[in-house]
Amino acid sequence: MLLAVACPGCGRVGSAPCERCLAQLRPAAEIPTPVGMVGCRALLAYEGPARDLVARIKFRNQRAVLGWLAQAMSPLWCPSSVDVVTWAPTIPAHRRSRGFDHAELLARRVARQGGVACVSLLARRPGPAQIGLDRDSRSHGPAFVARRDLTGASVLLVDDVVTTGSTMAAAAQVLVGAGAARVVGLAAAYSR
Ligand SMILES: [Zn+2]
What we know:
alpha/beta; Rossmann fold; 5-stranded parallel sheet; two-stranded antiparallel sheet; 7 helices; binds zinc ion
């Protein structure tokens, strides 16, 4: 028996995503490798129904979207080349208001897909919010600190959307600083 599911793109009941939304999804363009990484890939171009699809992981009860994204993202990475999966934590205010970190949920699904451990390796350094900083300070991305020694580790960093790549770069540089031998990035979507 088939269960009725709502399309994560448009909400129509049928399949997830529905054929109409699926037909409108485009693969992401190549991402210029962020500093500190050996490569970074994304599944979808951040446009059309992909925007709704990715936005839905920020809300509760959207397990179908997470599952679909994680499964579709899995061919983009090679689990055997990764020791651990992690994520760049969202700002505490977002985590507080939503009660969860959507980047963490996505990372956990992706890790499960490949049978690799998902571990919290990064913490946000307390500091001023991004709002109010000048363009130059903002472009350096949020400041993270490593939670443990990562000597020799190969790390996959998962995020929802890559835009400038500054968050990926900031996180990757901290992971490398903690000893990581190799950091690769994986996102649900890339917005150029
Ligand atoms: Zn749809």
